Amino acid sequence: MTNSALAFPASGAGTWRQHPLVVRYAPIVTIVLALITIWYVAAVLMNLALVRGGFEREETPYTVSELIAGTMSAERPLLPAPHQVIAAFTDSVFGYVPTAPRSLVYHSMVTLSATLLGFALGAVLGIVLALMIVHSRVLEKSLLPWIICSQMVPILALAPIFVVVLGVMGLQGLLPKSIISAYLCFFPITIGMVKGFTAPDPMQLDLMRTWSATPRQVLAKLRWPSAVPYLFASLKVAITISLIGAIVAELPTGAEAGIGARLLAGSYYGQTIQIWSALLASAILASGLIGLVDLAERLVGLRMGARP
Amino acid sequence: MPKLLKPSDPGVTLRPDRREPFVARSEPARMNKTAKSDSLPQRLAVDVRDVSLTFETSDGKVDALSNVSLQIAEGEFVSFIGPSGCGKTTMLRVIADLQQPSVGTLLVNGVSAEQARLERRYGYVFQAPALFPWRTIEKNLKLPLEIMGFPDSEQAQRAARYLALVNLTGFERKYPWQLSGGMQQRVSIARALSFDPALLLMDEPFGALDEIVRDHLNEQLLQLWGKTGKTVLFVTHSIPEAVFLSTKIVVMSPRPGRIIDVIDCNFPRDRALEIRETPEFLKIAQRIRVGLRAGHSYDE
User: Fold this and answer.
1) What is the spatial distance between Cα A14 and Cα B195, in angstroms, rounded to a whole number?
2) Looking at residue B4, what DSSP letter applies?
3) Is residue B57 part of a domain?
4) What are phi and psi of A240, to 5 degrees?
5) Domain residues for B223?
6) Strand pairing category for B248-253 and B258-264
7) ipTM, interface predicted TM-score of the complex
8) H/E element holding B51?
9) How far away is chain B from the Cα of A230, in angstroms, using its nearest Cα?
10) For the domain that residue B78 is a member of, what is the CATH number?
11) Closest of B63, B103, B76 to residue B253, by C-alpha
12) From CA B180, how far away is CA B191, in angstroms rounded?
């Protein structure tokens, strides 16, 4: 058995299995196909009662194949079939000009701008807090419990309060959403950067001391560069959280635009297909954002002499 | 590969074993040694008087140093030898003002240890190279110079000069992980010398290297010392290394950390590895061994 398995690549019949494209993509394709199959089966099972009820109400006779076809083309199914979601998604992405309120691109852009602003605010806040905590014992003891507490309150409960308070202060639209998003995403950055700023080797810190470097020089030339790997690890976590924050912030505010608004409208009117295509949009957005952070990490790594 | 000196270059003397010279010859040692050793009132590079240092640990006090006194003249090469826990590293850290003594006074180059550190009077070489992995070799060499505010042109000039001194010209753009352990430690020695401190403190710099590399670096360090005329304080726990390198050997013993013997070691400055076979060398090695054994008999 072992022998024949080892000899297999040379035999010619199995060479396609060793093709680099197959080796690389076969696992991914297999998983995707499996998921889609499970999704279809689930769609049939979940929508069955609904479709059967529809036929019985209209007292039309139906066959099994009609029933199954019905579960995959219902207008408001419990679980839409993948092709319905894809169709709705492509229609709402490509079917309208990107500025139209029915275009998913438009809504994604609204959420994306809140996400990016919130991410930037959160990153700055997270790094500043980490600097303060690393800088002084007193601040660590007084700040850290509050930072942890801040993350224990459910954001869904806090978001309306934020919106109301900020509304009174005259802030509306993009900024309240960004602040809620920043409130969620600064936390992993603070924790990561506290770890990063304290990452230098004691020997490296001693070296800086023998050169009588100022605290600012130690920060700029040792602590910052040592913290870079931790920074990117926490940025990757933070950017997805800030997207979630921006979407959540759109729910209680009754926003008219944004992925959150699409989700909310979809659930009001039982438009499950619309909900799922909005979810698909947010998933694509999230992977794109992580991809960007990944790319930035690799570019910075190149400049900092990381091993290829 | 680094640019090597050719035998035809002026000032190059070919070594009989034809191994690559570590120190590029450029100028003779700048100190007039004979005149210096004759004149009695030498300036002291390090003056330690009755220094004690006690650590508080979870299981009681530890006497890292107990009533240590030591005078080191300028230009000497002093080795500290002893078993682990004898306070030799602590001694070096106290001189470097990385740790403060509990009692006693300490002068480095005639000023307090803190003052000497603030004035950047010494270069420190640790057990590990401790290079900054995100900086190229050249940038690593420039780091202390940047911190001390040397002008850019001088930074580049010094980096080139000291890289050449440890025979690593050509490696400027490499990152530390691309160099071997011995090369990295040479970079860290060049870095310690780059701002031209009067004193070089070395804490088991070759401890992590294998014997062959270590022998080689020992010879090269001797040449470097002969060439720069620095005062060197060198911590080791290898007896042959201590005898081979030093003009003075300080034997220490643990619990409490103290000096039990100071041995003068007057081999010529341009000694070769072969002196390790001579009776004088073995005699000094034997004396160190006896001292270390006596120090140990307290707790066994």
Assistant:
1) 65
2) P
3) yes
4) -70, -40
5) 44-121+199-300
6) antiparallel
7) 0.78
8) strand B44-57
9) 14
10) 3.40.50.300
11) B63
12) 16
Q: Which two tokens stand for residue A70?
A: 């019905």
Nearest CA of chain B to the CA of A208: how many Å?
A: 8
Is the overall model pTM greater than 0.80, yes or no? no
**One domain, residues B166 and B219:** no
B126·A201 Cβ contact <8 A? no
Q: Are B104 and B49 in contact (CB under 8 A)?
A: yes
In sequence order, the β-bridge partners of residue B57 are B60
In 3D space, the residue among B205, B224, B225, B223 whose CA is nearest the CA of residue B213 turns out to be B205
Q: Provide the residue type at B6 as one letter.
A: K
Tokens of A272: 């499950």
Q: Which of A77, A76, A66, A75 is nearest to A43 (CA)?
A: A77
Q: Which residues of A touch B205 (CB under 8 A)?
A: none
B144 interaction partners in chain A (CB closer than 8 Å): 211
Instruction: Tell me, yes or no, whether B234 and B280 share the same domain.
Output: yes
**In this complex, which of A201, A210, A304 lies closest to B117 when CB atoms are compared?**
A210
First-to-last C-alpha distance (Å) of chain B: 51
In-domain check, residue B149: yes
Give the gap in angstroms from C-alpha B117 to the nearest C-alpha of chain A.
Answer: 6
Write out the two tokens for A225. 């560069």
Report yes or no on A119 lying in a domain.
Answer: yes
Higher pLDDT, A238 or B213: A238
Contacts of B67 (CB under 8 A, 6+ apart): B50, B51, B52, B104, B258
Q: How many distinct structural domains can be found in chain A?
A: 2
Length of chain B: 300
Separation of CA B228 from chain center: 12
**What are the tokens at A224?**
């910052």
B contacts of A207 (beta carbons < 8 Å): 124, 126, 130
| Residue A146 shares a structural domain with residue A237 | yes
Tokens of B2: 């680094």
Question: Across chain A, how many H-helices and E-strands are there?
Answer: 14, 0
Cβ neighbours of B202 (radius 10 Å): 25
Strand B231-236 relative to strand B199-203, pairing: parallel
CATH number at residue A179: 1.10.3720.10
pLDDT in tens, B96-142: 888 888 888 888 888 888 888 888 888 999 988 999 999 999 999 99
The whole domain housing A225 covers 104-303
Amino acid letter for position B26: S
Which contacts (CB < 8 Å, 24+ apart) does range A169-175 have? A174/A113, A174/A114, A174/A117, A175/A117
Evaluate whether residue A233 is within a structural domain: yes
What gap in Å lies between CA A248 and CA A257, rounded to an integer? 13
Domain boundary residue among A62, A78, A94? Answer: A78
Which tens digit of pLDDT belongs to each residue from A260-304? 888 888 888 888 888 999 999 999 999 999 999 999 999 999 888
Task: Compute, in degrees rounded to 10, the torsion defined by CA atoms A46, A49, A53, A54.
Answer: 30
- Quick check: is A9 in a domain? yes
Token digits for B118?
A: 């603030």
C-alpha A301: how far from its chain's center? 23
Residue B25 belongs to a domain:
no
